[in-house]
Amino acid sequence: MIRLGILGSGSGSNMQAILDAITAGTLEAEIVLVLSDIPNAYILERATRAGLRTGLIDCRGLTSKFPEEAQQETAEALHQSGVELICLAGFMRLLRAPLLDTFGGRILNIHPSLLPSYPGLNAWAQALEAGARESGCTVHYVDAGMDTGQIVAQAAVPVLSDDTAESLHSRIQIEEHRIYPEAIAKVAAEMRRD
Ligand code: GRF
């Protein structure tokens, strides 16, 4: 039973998918801590409603940076909760040394494109603007780069001629919710073997 820590800044639908997979018995894991940098993020509400432990990451009023002290505090909170694997689920700040050092090789992210295409923000809109005929999502390990770590799993979806950014993102999210729990199970099995 692997202990997961989840970091998110938004709606938390991927956290919900992970939780649903645990409840359904398809993922042997426990979510021991859910942290967000956004006080009113829906992910915190979902987590509280599910009876999970939550916490707020204090980014000292900075809108996009993840200050070192905050990373240190986050690493400590995750470590104290016994987290073995961190799952970023719509977390909007780049991780740096304190967190990467403490949890190196034990951090996953879900990204809404077929990496290495369209890293960074609003990847579904990037795919649409580029006229791509296919996009999708990627689960990957997190390193110091922007969406550059080793790929664990991917799923493709078509881009339709009448797609809007929202309709494409919704189609991608259906696949995210399927592959993220599967990828976590795969990584957990590998960690057990090591
Ligand atoms: C997802 O599209 C994920 O790929 C990206 O941010 C979004 C988070 O959605 N990193 P949610 O908060 O899990 O609903």
What does this structure look like?
The protein is of the alpha/beta class and 194 residues long. It has a domain at 2-109 and 139-152 and 181-193: Rossmann fold. Helices cover 39% and strands 22% of the residues. It has six helices and seven strands. It has helices spanning 13-24, 42-49, 68-80, 97-102, 123-129, 165-193, and strands at residues 2-7, 29-36, 54-56, 85-88, 107-111, 134-141, 151-158. Strands 3-2-1-4-5-6-7 form a seven-stranded mixed β-sheet. Helix 1 crosses helix 6. The mean pLDDT is 96. The structure holds 5-O-phosphono-beta-D-ribofuranosylamine (GRF). 5-O-phosphono-beta-D-ribofuranosylamine binds at residues 8, 10-14, 43, 89-90, 110-112, 137, 173, 176.
Taking pLDDT < 50 over at least 5 consecutive residues as the criterion, the unreliable ranges are none
Small-molecule binders: 5-O-phosphono-beta-D-ribofuranosylamine
What is the structural class?
A: alpha/beta
Q: Helical segment tally?
A: 6
CATH architecture label name of the domain at 2-109 and 139-152 and 181-193: 3-Layer(aba) Sandwich
Question: How many angstroms does the end-to-end distance come to?
Answer: 15 Å
The number of strands is 7
- Report the helical percentage: 25-40%
Q: Kindly report the spatial arrangement of strands forming the biggest sheet.
A: 3-2-1-4-5-6-7
